[in-house]
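Changelog-linked ticket: 2-(butylsulfanyl)adenosine example.
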Amino acid sequence: MKTSDTVQERIAHLTSDIERHNRLYYQDDAPEISDDEYDQLFRELKDLEAAYPELAAPDSPTRRVGADPVEKFAQVRHPTPMLSLDNAFTSEEVRDFDARIKRFLGQDGPIAYLVEPKIDGVAIELVYEGGRLVQASTRGNGLVGEDVTTNIKTMQAVPLNLVKRRKLPIPDRLEVRGEVYMPLEAFEKLNEARRAKGEPPFANPRNAAAGSLRQLDHRITARRRLSMFCYAVARPEALGVETQYELLQALNSWELRVNLNPNDLEVCEDLDRIFDFYRRLEQRREELPFEIDGMVIKVNDLALQSRLGDTARSPRWAMAYKFSLVGAETVVEAIDVQVGRTGALTPVAIMTPVRIGGVMVSRATLHNEDEVRRKDVRVGDTVVVQRAGDVIPEVAGVVGDKRPPGTVPFAMPETCPSCDAPVVRLPGEAALRCDNASCPAQIREHLYHFGSKNALDIDGLGGKLIDQLMDKGLVSSPADLYDLTLEQLADLPRMADKSARNLLEALERSRRTTLERFIYALGIRHVGRGLARVLAERFQALEPLRRAEIEELEAIDEIGPKVAASLVSFMLNSRNHSLIERLLDIGFTLEPPMGNTGRLAGRTFVLTGALEGLTRAEAKARIQAAGGKISSSVSRNTDYLVVGDKPGRKAREAAELGVAVLDEKAFVELLKE
Ligand code: IVH
C-alpha cells in the first residue's frame, strides 16, 4: 500500500477493481487477470475488512462471491406458505374468477386488477432482516424449500442490502417473493456452450434457471447470468401500502428488481381491458428478453386481498391466465395402449370428442405408466385436456369431484397388446417395452417411419396402406416394400391403378437417397435426425458406421454412452443386419453429406420470420444442402440472419452484433450463386 493511500481509499480502490474483474469474468467471459492475481486482490480486501470491520461495506464483493461450496442444501420452512396460482386457459375462466371474487366479497361494482406477465422461472423467497439479505430459498413444496442463499447472493439482480430512498421505512423483516429467471440471451449462450462441450442443452430457460440455482458450487451459479423480478411479499398489510401496485413501487424504491415497464403492467377495472392486455402481451411475447407463459391477474387492493384470503393451494385474489395452452373438460371412455416403433408402450386416453382451441380432440397421450399413476386417470373420469400450439394433446389432470363411483385404477398390461409377448421395463426407463422384434405393431410403426418425410420420403405410403399390406402378408420389413408389384398393389381395396403406379415410382426414387436419411430411416433407438446427420458426416459411408465400435462412437462429441450402445447393438442384431443387407442388394445409393465442401461451408445461418417462397424446413434444407449450418440464436458466430415477415427480436440482435442481414430475395440469390 502506498503511504499516501488511506485504508479507506485502498478499500474503495480494491472494491471497484474486484467488481470490474467480476464483470469481466462472470458477465463478459473476458477476464483480464489470472485467477491468482484475482485471489490476491480478493484476499487483500478481505484482510483489510477483517482488520477494519467498520470500513467493510455491507455490499462488498467479498460478501457476494467467496464462501465455500455447500455440500447439500439445507431445508427452510416458509413462515408464510408459498402458494401456487390457479390457472385459467380461457376468457370464460377469467370471467368466472371475477364473478367468484365479487360473490365472495358481496360486491357488484367493478374490481381493480393489476395485470402483469407471468415469468417462466423459479419461485424464490428472499428474507431481509434489518435491510440485509439473510436468506434465500426455493418454493419446494410450498411449506419447506431449499436454502439457496449462497447462490442467490451471486446474482447482480439481488441487492444484498435494501436502500431506503423514500419516506417508506424498510421493515425489520421482509419476506419478498419473486421469480428467478434466465434471460433468453443468456440461455441461448449457455446452451451453445454446452453443445460445444458435448453436454446436453437445457430444454428451456426455466430448467436452466432451476439447474443453475441448484448448483452446490455457487461459482457456477455466478457464471449463469440469472436475473430476478420481485412481485409479492408475505403479509404486505404491514408495509403501509394500500395496493399491489404501490407494493411494487415500494419494493422498487428499496432497489429490489421489479418489472415496472409500463407495457408490462396495467391496472384494469374491466375485464375487456384484461383481455386486451392478454392479446397485446401474447403478441409481444416473442420480443421480450425473457420467457413468459401467460399473465397474472391480481386484485389490486391489498385490503380486499386479505379479505379474500387463500385456499390450501392458491390465493383467491390471484389467477394465472396462461397462453395458448388451451384446455377443456371431457370424459375418458377408454385407455388404449399403443406400441411404438421401438416397442415402447404408451397409454392413450380415448375421450368423448371435445373442441379445444378450434380443433376436435378425442385422444390424448398419457405418456407412460408413472404418469398415469401420478395423475390417477381412470376410465370414466372427467379430465382436463390441454393443447399447446401444435403439440400433441395431453391430459392435464382429473377433475376429482366428478369421478363416478366404481372406477378402478388403470394398470398397464403385462403382455404386448399387439403380439402378446411379455413386456419389460428396463432399469432407468419410464417406458414399458415389448421386446419382440417381430411384433406387428412395431413393424407397422417402423414401416411408417421408414417412408416418412424426413426419412426416405416415400409418397403415398400412409398408415392405412401399411395396414393393408401387412394384413395381406405382403410386407413385414421395409425391404419387402421393394418387392411389391403393380398387380399386388392394384389388387388392394380402394387402390386406383394410378396410385399404385405412383407408389412404385416413389419407391424407385427412394433408392437414391442421402446417407443421413438412410441412417435415420433405419429407426435406431436414440438416433433422430440430428444424430443421423452427425453420423453421416463423421463416417461418410455406411460400412464404417456398421463396423464402428463403442469407443469410436463415444469419441464423437454429440454421442454419449447410451447412443453408442444403442448403435452397436442395433448393428449386431441379426434382423437389422439382414435388413441392411437386403436394402443394399436392392441397389440403394447413399450420398455422403457435402460436409465442408459445400459452397456455404462453415457459414452459420439464423432464420427469423416467415419467408414467402419457401417454408422454414425448405430453407433449412437448402442451407444444409450447400454445407451451411443453422443456429437458433444470433451470436457473434452468426454469418447471416435471414429475415422474413415480422422479423422481431433477432433482427435487433443482429444489428447490434453487426451480423449480415439477408432479406428473402438476397437469400435466394445467395443459394443460387
Ligand atoms: S404472484 C401466491 N406474479 O407462477 C402466489 N407469480 O404458477 C403469488 N409467477 O408460484 C404469485 N410470474 O412462481 C406471481 N408476476 C407473477 C409471476 C408469478 C411468475 C410464478 C410463481 C408462482 C407460479 C404459479
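Closing comment: Example verified and attached. The mean pLDDT is 88. Residues 315 and 351 are 32 Å apart (CA to CA).
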